[in-house]
Amino acid sequence: RLWVMRKSIFGLGLAQVLVTALGIGSAAYFGFEQTRGSALIIGFGLSMSSTALVLQLLAERGQLHSQYGRSAFSILLFQDIAVLPALALLPLLGVAAAKTTGPGGWLVVKFIAVLATVIVGGRYVLRPMLRIVAATRVAEAFTAAGLLVVIGTALLVNQVGLSLSLGAFLAGVLLADSEFRHELEADIEPFKGLLLGLFFISVGMSANLGLVLEKPMTLVGLTLGFMLLKVAVLRAIGRLSGLPTAASRGLAFSLPSGGEFAFVLFGLGATLGIMDTEIAELLVLVVTGSMILSPLLLVVHDALFKK
Q1: Which pTM does this prediction carry?
Q2: Contact 145/130 with Cβ under 8 angstroms?
């Protein structure tokens, strides 16, 4: 499916991420005097959109199979793929921020070794293990095995200095590549909403709400500014790719918000010392505000342009 949709995924998706990240990152570097590493994380993090939120909204409105709905899906798919190298590069940026050149080369070697181990293990160990578990015909055992693979891979990757998020992402890719992916998806489906809700609750509990009272105008300005930039970029990319005016406008109004991966990137960036903690907390609130406003923008779009 990736190969069939390659033009829209690697054309629209790559263009959206690069142009948006370059625009926002340049503004952070030149306008707000952030370091290069911090500006890079800010630009890339804010170029992401919420896959869970956007797909749900488009599905509820029956627009997922429209022309701009398919384009939005392609961009979201590329964004999800682009997160993997971003999570892998963050520790290297942390090494650069700490100005210690020694561990950097070893970190790259460790990452390649762990990646090779995970891929080979997934091919020759994971599949036979899942076949044994599937032979028991116990749904709970299958669910537990899937979660064990995710936790084990995350801990393995974390042991070499990389993030738990990267390990969990790799485990998800491996499980999705097995012949039991549909059964795993069905077994884990009841937990998906619960765990996604738990993720957003943890983000909400870690948010510094004091900044809302201290810098309300800054929050509003940053939120509206980056959403307007994304709308302009998406509309221009849509038109340049050959989409009609209405479809380009629908695409622009579908993906203006930030995404849940931004919470992970900003949190890791602050933990690794690449960006200031207060900046990370401020941007978490900005992304949250954009996700709240995103459904309202679709309502405004339908009210203005539906006829």
Answers
A1: 0.80
A2: yes
Give the pLDDT of the chain (307 residues) as one tens digit per residue: 677 778 888 899 999 999 999 999 999 999 888 999 999 999 999 999 998 889 988 888 888 888 889 999 999 999 988 887 887 778 777 666 655 444 556 766 777 787 788 778 777 888 888 888 888 888 788 888 888 999 998 898 888 777 788 888 888 888 888 888 888 888 888 888 888 888 888 888 878 888 988 999 999 999 999 999 999 999 999 999 889 999 999 999 999 999 988 998 998 888 888 899 999 999 999 999 999 999 998 888 888 887 6
**Rounded distance, CA 264 to CA 64, Å?**
27
Own/partner contacts of 242-251, CB < 8 Å, gap of 24 or more, are 243/67, 243/68, 243/71, 244/67, 246/68, 246/305, 247/66, 247/67, 247/68, 247/71, 248/68, 249/68, 249/301, 249/305, 250/63, 250/66, 250/67, 250/68, 250/69, 250/301, 251/68, 251/71, 251/72, 251/75
Under 8 Å CB-to-CB from 29, ≥6 apart: which residues?
35, 36, 39
